[in-house]
Amino acid sequence: MEINWDAFLAPYAQAVEELKVKLRGIRKQYRQGNTHVPIEFVTGRVKPADSILAKADLRHIALENLESEMQDIAGLRIMCQFVEDIQDVVKMLKKRKDFTIIDEKDYVMHKKESGYRSYHVVIEYPVQLINGEKKILAEIQIRTLAMNFWATIEHSLNYKYQDELPQEISERLERAAEAAFQLDEEMSQIREEIQEAQHLFSYSKGRKKKESGQDRLS
Amino acid sequence: MEINWDAFLAPYAQAVEELKVKLRGIRKQYRQGNTHVPIEFVTGRVKPADSILAKADLRHIALENLESEMQDIAGLRIMCQFVEDIQDVVKMLKKRKDFTIIDEKDYVMHKKESGYRSYHVVIEYPVQLINGEKKILAEIQIRTLAMNFWATIEHSLNYKYQDELPQEISERLERAAEAAFQLDEEMSQIREEIQEAQHLFSYSKGRKKKESGQDRLS
Amino acid sequence: MEINWDAFLAPYAQAVEELKVKLRGIRKQYRQGNTHVPIEFVTGRVKPADSILAKADLRHIALENLESEMQDIAGLRIMCQFVEDIQDVVKMLKKRKDFTIIDEKDYVMHKKESGYRSYHVVIEYPVQLINGEKKILAEIQIRTLAMNFWATIEHSLNYKYQDELPQEISERLERAAEAAFQLDEEMSQIREEIQEAQHLFSYSKGRKKKESGQDRLS
Amino acid sequence: MEINWDAFLAPYAQAVEELKVKLRGIRKQYRQGNTHVPIEFVTGRVKPADSILAKADLRHIALENLESEMQDIAGLRIMCQFVEDIQDVVKMLKKRKDFTIIDEKDYVMHKKESGYRSYHVVIEYPVQLINGEKKILAEIQIRTLAMNFWATIEHSLNYKYQDELPQEISERLERAAEAAFQLDEEMSQIREEIQEAQHLFSYSKGRKKKESGQDRLS
Lengths: 218, 218, 218, 218
Prior knowledge:
Chains A, B, C, D: Residues 44-165 form the RelA/SpoT domain. The structure is a homotetramer of 218-residue chains. Chain A is an alpha+beta fold and 218 residues long.
């Protein structure tokens, strides 16, 4: 089966563009609401043809079933500051009426053997084409910065070693996963204290913006 | 002294836009060169008027000296995967002829008391205005993802507590800085092993791209 | 009635961002389809607060009815090469399922007294907010480059003369409208001949891409 | 001679991205200055490999001389409202210190036989690469919307007829060039009257923003 990749990937590319604008828009809304912003940044990509073919081979997906069986041809990623933000983001995604959630995988509560942690949501998203509507699958990964950090490293390593990690490297990667997990744990505790403190504050005094050395770049 | 902020900030905003395109372009070059890409992502911002005023107050900078004495009105941030990448990025910035480096601060080797780590480069950048060239100062911060992660948290905390962190929070923040540092250390060691492995590999077999479960979103 | 403009305009801004990505995506689809591309470019804007207030005043719209009675707070504009493209674009918009068309005004067939020509489509577009879906109104203007050219000039003149155009200027503007109309007429005739020629060609010989001196910048 | 197109075109693509940000920045400056904005919009493109090869063939440019002899591999286009704006833009480009103008062609005063009108400026622009600075050539075309309109049509026609326009089409194209020219003439006269009027106005009364039916989309 010969695939015209430009034509095949076009609706996925359009979906990714639309979803990036939509998910980034959520961040702006939280900011304006002056509440905690659970989204740090949003990225998106269309899986390249060679990666699609390699994965289809690995998972025994026939090329004529790509659209229905490969869920991450369109991929979005939402980065959060705190582990707790992940559930807030998932809840908010479930409220949306512009797509349907058809699958969820909680690799935060149930991390993969490799140490990989992330929350995956698979959606069915309607793209309006010249000739009518087409529903495509897309995967949204929600994770903390520490989870993202680790996953980036793991990806590089697997890429270089072609999935056959030497014992030594493999052990280090586990220790790194542990360090990333600890970072998230520390942050969660800090978060709780911030919230308690905020509660106390709100009775005792007003708040004003103040220069704190590091401001936010976006 | 009354400042027309729109007019005052316009050349800084233009500089930030140009530098974002320039620094992001570097990333593309590394990618095409098929070598390790030392830049993960680049962000930029112009310091808002109220933050400028607060900082000028704190540092006793007279408003008529803002242009020459406040170095981070235009701010760029380059995020790296490995600590070692930071020096590569700095070297590469020094080769450029479109700006002049006028100051450097190495908070990676010499972290701040707070635990803050980053490499700061202050540049003089010429912006072409309708009425001629204007040289402005801009600060480029270069840091790993782990350093950035910690700095984001510290910024939130300082913002909320207005620089008077309770002892409890302050200690947690130190532990978080330690965890972030450990993460960078682990990564550095993994990096070395990757490079050794690559060296060995290059004698024994060719390399081909392979699906590894997590691909890169950008 | 006091309006919080940032909050009021936010869903409109989000809608404009989403619709720009969606309408520009259409252009890509036509291009890939290798057929005539009826869309030259797409622009969008949110009406500024002062323009909203001025128009509400002029049209006697109570501020509490802005959402339901002012249709162009969110505005999109689609520029076409040929007058005939306008109807193709309108037909294609009507096929979409991500918004509902609730009004149409055909100032192409029935130009305004001022000479203004354009096709206006008013849509109801659902924006997904943190707290649920909100349907907003948006106006899509579809026009040729010549119509757009004239409208830009008319806008400048009305802005400068505050809607009280001197007789002299007013007459010139009419002559300019006439010239713009002629340009569109000439183009329509050229278009027909192109299509006939294409028909003839397709029997006699193949087509290949060729350098023609001016290529397309986008 | 085999060309690695990705590597060859990369510095041109980078230059186009930088110049788009720079030239669009000019527009913002004029707007903030509250003076007439001589730039309507700016587009840019890198010439595709097949167009480069076709043009090299047509103009007898050896592939090893592409960098020095083909001036429009990187192309920018600045659209103006009035013919008079073109000279203002050219003067402003000449003041810039971030590139050197090495050639100018005035097809506004001296239109091409085909009817083509535009002002071309060829610049030498320094791009900072990982391995050092590289100077590349880029062409900036400055034209009114009417000139652009006509050129777009001519491009389509030449593309379809492969530069052998039938007499009938060729004559229509000339009439269209004439209509476009008339449109620019009318606009110039309106422009003069606007300026006179502004002069008179400034003695007699203040100016205030007013809703004029069509606002600006950008």
